[in-house]
Design a protein that fits this description.
Chain A: It is a multi-pass membrane protein. The complex is a heterodimer of chains A (about 300) and B (about 325). By secondary structure, chain A is mainly alpha-helical. Chain A is built from twelve helices and no strands. Chain B has a domain of about 200 residues: MetI-like (MetI-like fold, Orthogonal Bundle), CATH 1.10.3720.10. Chain B has 14 helices and no strands. The chains are: A mainly alpha (about 300), B mainly alpha (about 325).
C-alpha cells in the first residue's frame, strides 16, 4: 500500500516538474516576458532591501537643498542622484521606498480579489440556480460603475488612506474573477472526472476546491497578473487625486500629486515617479502576455 | 430579434434596481450625520436640524425613503447639490456636453489610429512595423494617464508653448452654448480665432484620453485579424486571384471587426474613468472633474446623483453595444 502511495507521489512530482518545464519552454520563448520578469524581480529585490539601498531617509527634509535638479543636469548635486523635491527630500530614496507600497498594494488587492472571486465563482458555478443569479447580479451592479469612479466614491465613504483604497480597488476587481471562475466551473462541472469523484462520495467542498478548481487556474493566473498591474495604476491614480496614501507617504501617485504645481519649473519631480509607475506596470503586463501565451493553448501563437 | 431585445432589456432591470440601491445607501452609510456635515463647524440649532431632516426626508423609515427616492428618479429628481443648490440633473446636463465632446474626439482618434495600426501589424506580422505597433500599444496600455497628461503639459504647453494648459477655450471668447460642443459653437459664433482656440484646448486632453483605448483597440484588432487571416475563406479568396488589399479590406476586416466593435463599446467605462483624471488635470469642465470636485467638497448629493447617472449611462451604452452586436452577428441572437 505504502509503495503505491510512494509511486503515485513520485509520478505526480515528476509530472509537476514536466508541467513547469513545459511552461517555462513556452514562457521563455517570449523575450518580452523574460525581460519583464527580470525587471520585476529587480523591483522586488529593491523593495525588499529598500532601507539598505536608499542613500537618504525618504522623509528627511534637506532645507538647504530644495528642488535640486538631477545629478547630471546643470546645478545638480551627486548626493541627490535624481534631485530633490520642493521640501528638499531625496527623490531617489522616496522612489525606492515607494516601490514597497506599490508592490504591496498590488499583492494585497490581487489576493483579496482572487480569493473572494474564487469562492463566489465556485459557489455560483457549482450550485447554479438562485445562488448563481444573486451572485452574478451583484457582480453586474459593480460592473455598471466605471471602476475608478466606484473606487473613488468608496474611498470617500471609508475615508482616504492606503488601506481603504486597497479594499475599494479589491472590491471593484472582484467581478472579473467571479465571472472567470464561474465560467470555468460551469464548463468542468459535468465532465466525467467530476461525476466520477462525486459518485465515489466526494463532498461538495472537495469537489469544488480539489477536483474542479485546479483545472480552472490558467485564466485566473492571467487575470491576476493583469489585475496586479491595474491595481498599481489605480492606487497611484487614487493617490494622485488625494484619496490614496496620504502625504508624506512616498507613494508614487501621491508624490505626483505633490509635484503637480512644480511641473513647469522642475520637470524631474514629475518625471521620475511616473517613469517608476510605467516601468513597473509595463514589466508586469509583459509577464502577463507571456503567461497568457504559455498557459492558454487557445491563444497560443496569436 | 425583438425577443432578443426584450430579454436583454429585462436583464437590466435587476441591475438597475441594484444600482439605485447602491446610490441610495451610499449617502446613508457615510460616517457622520449629513446635515451636521452640511452645517459645518458653526453648528446648528435643534429646530433648524429637525426642519432640515424633514426637508430631506431623513425622519422617515428607510424603506419609505427608498420608495420616495425611486419615484423621484422617475420624475428626473436626482437630488440637489448641497453647495450650489441646483438640481443634480441640471448640473449633469450642463457639464455633460464637455465630457461627451472630449470622449467623442478621443474615441475617434483611438479608432482612426488603432484599427489601421492593428490591421497593418497583423498583415505584416513579425515585421519591424508589427513590433513597434505592439510595443507602443503595450506602453500605452501600461501608461498612468495622469502622468502622461502632466508630461504632455510640460512638453507641449511648457517648452514648446503650442497649447494652453487648461480649460475649454480662451477667456477672451464668450458665446451662448448652442450645441454644447465648443468646436461647433465656436464656428457658429463667427468670432475670429474662436475655433482655433477651442481646438488647441481640446488637442492635448483628447490625445491623453485616447491613449489607452487606442492601445486596446490596436491589440484587439491585430489578434482578431490574425485569427481571421488564417481562415479557409480568406485563403480561398486569395486563391481565386483577388488582390491582397481587397481580401484584407473586404473579406477579413469585416469579420475581424465584430469583436473590435464590442471592445470599442466597452471603452466607454474606461473613458469615464479616464475622464476623471484627464478633466481634473486639464481643468476641463466636465462630468469627471465635477465628480472629483464634489467628492472633495463633500457634496454627497451630487456624488450620489452623479454616480447613478453615470452608471445608467454606462448600462445604456453596454445595452446598445450588445444589441448592435446581435445585429451584426446573428449567432448571438439565438442563444
Amino acid at each position: 500500500m505504502s509503495d503505491t502511495t510512494q509511486l503515485i507521489e513520485n509520478v505526480s512530482r515528476q509530472s509537476t516538474k514536466a508541467v513547469l518545464k513545459e511552461f517555462w519552454f513556452y514562457f521563455s520563448e517570449n523575450r518580452g516576458a523574460v525581460l519583464g520578469l527580470f525587471v520585476f524581480l529587480t523591483l522586488v529585490l529593491l523593495a525588499l532591501f529598500a532601507p539598505y539601498i536608499t542613500p537618504h531617509d525618504a522623509t528627511m527634509q534637506y532645507r538647504d537643498a530644495l528642488l535640486v535638479p538631477p545629478a547630471w543636469a546643470e546645478g545638480g548635486n551627486s548626493s541627490y542622484l535624481l534631485g530633490t523635491d520642493a521640501v528638499g527630500r531625496d527623490i531617489l530614496s522616496r522612489l525606492v521606498i515607494g516601490s514597497r507600497f506599490s508592490l504591496f498594494v498590488g499583492i494585497v488587492v490581487v489576493v483579496i480579489a482572487l480569493v473572494g472571486g474564487i469562492i463566489l465563482g465556485l459557489v455560483a458555478g457549482y450550485y447554479g440556480g438562485t445562488v448563481d443569479t444573486i451572485v452574478m447580479r451583484i457582480m453586474d451592479i459593480i460592473l455598471a460603475f466605471p471602476s475608478l469612479l466606484l473606487a473613488l466614491v468608496m474611498v470617500a465613504l471609508l475615508g482616504p488612506g492606503l488601506l481603504n483604497a486597497m479594499i475599494a480597488i479589491a472590491i471593484v476587481y472582484q467581478p472579473h474573477f467571479v465571472r472567470l471562475t464561474r465560467a470555468a466551473v460551469m464548463a468542468e462541472r459535468d465532465r466525467e472526472y467530476v461525476v466520477a469523484a462525486r459518485v465515489s462520495g466526494a463532498s461538495s467542498l472537495r469537489l469544488m476546491f480539489l477536483t474542479i478548481l485546479p483545472n480552472c487556474t490558467a485564466p485566473l493566473i492571467v487575470q491576476a497578473t493583469l489585475s496586479f498591474s491595474s491595481a498599481i495604476l489605480d492606487i497611484a491614480a487614487l493617490g494622485f487625486l488625494g484619496m490614496g496614501a496620504q502625504p508624506p507617504t512616498p507613494e508614487w501617485g501621491t508624490m505626483l500629486a505633490e509635484a503637480r504645481e512644480f511641473i513647469l519649473r522642475a520637470w524631474w519631480v514629475v518625471t521620475f515617479p511616473g517613469v517608476s509607475i510605467l516601468v513597473t506596470v509595463l514589466a508586469i503586463n509583459l509577464i502577463g502576455d507571456g503567461l497568457r501565451d504559455a498557459l492558454d493553448p487557445k491563444l497560443k501563437r496569436s | 430579434m425583438f425577443g432578443f431585445i426584450l430579454r436583454r432589456v429585462g436583464m437590466l432591470i435587476p441591475t438597475f434596481i441594484g444600482v439605485t440601491l447602491v446610490a441610495f445607501f451610499f449617502i446613508r452609510l457615510l460616517p457622520g450625520d449629513p446635515i451636521l456635515l452640511l452645517a459645518g463647524e458653526r453648528g446648528i440649532s435643534a429646530e433648524r436640524y429637525a426642519e432640515l431632516q424633514h426637508a430631506f426626508g431623513f425622519d422617515q423609515p428607510v424603506l419609505i425613503q427608498y420608495f420616495h427616492y425611486l419615484t423621484g428618479l422617475f420624475h428626473g429628481d436626482f437630488g440637489m447639490s448641497m453647495v450650489t443648490r441646483r438640481p443634480v440633473w441640471d448640473e449633469f446636463f450642463a457639464l455633460f456636453p464637455a465630457t461627451l465632446e472630449l470622449s467623442f474626439v478621443a474615441i475617434v482618434i483611438a479608432v482612426v489610429i488603432g484599427i489601421p495600426a492593428g490591421v497593418i501589424a497583423a498583415v505584416k506580422r513579425g515585421s519591424i512595423f508589427d513590433y513597434s505597433v505592439m510595443t507602443s500599444a503595450l506602453v500605452g496600455y501600461s501608461m498612468p494617464i495622469f502622468w502622461w497628461a502632466l508630461l504632455a503639459i510640460i512638453v507641449f504647453s511648457g517648452w514648446l508653448e503650442w497649447t494652453p494648459v487648461s480649460g475649454r477655450i480662451s477667456v477672451m471668447y464668450f458665446f451662448e452654448p448652442v450645441t454644447g460642443f465648443m468646436l461647433i459653437d465656436s464656428l457658429l459664433s463667427d468670432q475670429a480665432g474662436a475655433f482655433e482656440s477651442a481646438f488647441s484646448h481640446l488637442v492635448l486632453p483628447s490625445i491623453v484620453l485616447a491613449t489607452i483605448p487606442m492601445a486596446v483597440i490596436a491589440r484587439q484588432t491585430r489578434s482578431a485579424m490574425l485569427e481571421v487571416l488564417g481562415e479557409d475563406y480568406v485563403r480561398t479568396a486569395r486563391a481565386k486571384g483577388l488582390r491582397r488589399v481587397r481580401v484584407v479590406g473586404m473579406h477579413a476586416l469585416r469579420n475581424a471587426l465584430i469583436p473590435v466593435v464590442t471592445t470599442i463599446g466597452l471603452q466607454v467605462g474606461v473613458l469615464m474613468a479616464g475622464a476623471i483624471l484627464t478633466e481634473t488635470i486639464f481643468s476641463w469642465p466636465g462630468i469627471g472633474k465635477w465628480m472629483v470636485d464634489s467628492i472633495s467638497r463633500r457634496d454627497y448629493q451630487v456624488v450620489q446623483g452623479g454616480l447613478l447617472m453615470i452608471a445608467m449611462m454606462v448600462m445604456l451604452v453596454n445595452l446598445v453595444v450588445d444589441l448592435l452586436y446581435g445585429l451584426i452577428n446573428p449567432r448571438i441572437r439565438h442563444r
